[in-house]
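Re: that backbone. Tokens:
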């Protein structure tokens, strides 16, 4: 059996505690659902022991998070997510509705591999193999958009118009990326709206709200230090109010599609010019 260091165990423990809190389950309830003792769950959550592959797969079955715990167990030596985003991953996997607001780049769930890699490579002191590992993890997250059981989450995404014109990787990558966004926007459970260039409260920072059956909803704030997860009723309410205010400033879905199509044409024109 692999010997994981303390940070490896803490990574898995954080995801397990976040998933359990989201469901509102006790340690004993989790133990009963996967057929192991409560002391085993306590030891995993405290970081005193590493999970086995079997336990990771059983946790995925119990929480309805296909592959999340299994992938984490397999990659415990190479952390694919930032420490700030890691606790949010199970909330994203288990959400019924995900609301995103972005002012600089597209949300990770919508990014093509070329677009994502171009962004990952510019992080200071990031080696190529680390960028590729993080890319694989980001692309694996996107499976939730196409799953059948459980159904994919409803996605409502607000994009500042600047996102359509920010040169991430060059005209060819941008044109292909926005074509991909158009394809996603045509899916029945995905709504993408563009906020015209203007002063608005979304300029203060990108954020994601993961809504599940249990309250409070979970908020992820993107920051230069890797992000922050907030599980607070007051914070969730405040960010939902902000999201609704931003959506009121956005173009309709059909007008947003036209804006994205125009941006695609502009990027294609730059390729041929």
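Recovered sequence:
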């Amino acid at each position: 059996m692999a010997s994981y260091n303390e940070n490896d165990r803490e990574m898995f423990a954080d995801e397990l505690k976040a998933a359990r809190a989201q469901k509102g389950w006790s340690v004993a309830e989790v133990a009963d659902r996967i057929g192991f003792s409560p002391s085993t769950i306590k030891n995993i959550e405290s970081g005193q022991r590493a999970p086995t592959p079997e336990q990771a797969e059983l946790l995925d079955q119990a929480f309805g998070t296909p592959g999340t715990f299994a992938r984490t167990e397999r990659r415990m030596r190479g952390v694919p997510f930032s420490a700030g985003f890691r606790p949010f991953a199970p909330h994203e996997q288990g959400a019924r509705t995900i609301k995103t607001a972005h002012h600089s780049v597209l949300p990770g769930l919508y990014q093509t591999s070329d677009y994502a890699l171009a962004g990952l490579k510019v992080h200071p002191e990031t080696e190529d193999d680390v960028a590729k590992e993080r890319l694989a993890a980001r692309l694996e997250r996107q499976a939730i958009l196409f799953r059948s059981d459980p159904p994919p989450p409803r996605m409502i995404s607000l994009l500042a118009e600047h996102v359509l014109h920010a040169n991430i990787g060059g005209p060819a990558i941008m044109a292909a990326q926005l074509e991909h966004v158009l394809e996603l926007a045509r899916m029945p459970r995905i709504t993408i709206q563009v906020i015209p260039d203007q002063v608005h409260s979304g300029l203060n920072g990108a954020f994601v709200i993961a809504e599940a059956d249990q309250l409070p909803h979970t908020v992820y704030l993107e920051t230069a230090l890797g992000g922050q997860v907030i599980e607070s009723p007051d914070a969730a309410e405040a960010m939902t109010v902000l999201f609704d205010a931003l959506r009121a400033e956005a173009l309709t879905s059909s007008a947003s599609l036209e804006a994205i199509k125009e941006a695609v044409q502009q990027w294609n024109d730059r390729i041929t010019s």
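Residues 57 and 70 are 5 Å apart (CA to CA). The first strand starts at residue 97 and ends at 102.
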